[in-house]
Amino acid sequence: YVFQRAALLEWRSALRNILLQAEIRRLEPTVARARADELIRMTGLTGFEDAHPHELSGGMQQRVALCRALLHEPPVLLM
After folding, report:
1. Would you list the domain boundaries of the chain?
2. pTM score of the predicted model
3. Distance from first CA to last CA of the chain, Å, rounded?
4. Cα 48 to chain center, whole Å?
5. Rounded to the nearest 5°, which phi and psi values hold at 28?
6. What is the DSSP string of the chain?
7. How many C-beta atoms surround the C-beta of residue 2 within 10 A?
8. Mean pLDDT of the region 55-66
């Protein structure tokens, strides 16, 4: 699920916000990191992995939230 407001954790970097999904679902860390890297590349967030939400534009925050939602490859995504 992707909220209208990005709903990112301010104290976590973009990458750590994306990997939160992996922590919650107990995904294998190396697989999750590879998937996160792929999603970051696909959404044009390369170079912003260490940025915190307040350092990102609204659109970039939404892309981080989208990456987080897609990390575990859900069959359906509600937006």
Report:
1. 14-70
2. 0.89
3. 6
4. 11
5. -65, 125
6. ---SS----TTS-HHHHHHHHHHHHT--HHHHHHHHHHHHHHTT-TT-TT--GGGS-HHHHHHHHHHHHHTT--S----
7. 15
8. 95
CA distances from 78 to 35, 53, 70 (A): 20, 22, 11
In this predicted model, what pLDDT tens digit does every residue of 2-49 receive, in sequence order? Answer: 667 778 999 999 999 999 999 999 999 999 999 999 999 999 999 999
For residues 13 and 79, what is the distance between their CA atoms, to the nearest angstrom?
Answer: 23
Max intra-chain CA distance, the chain: 31
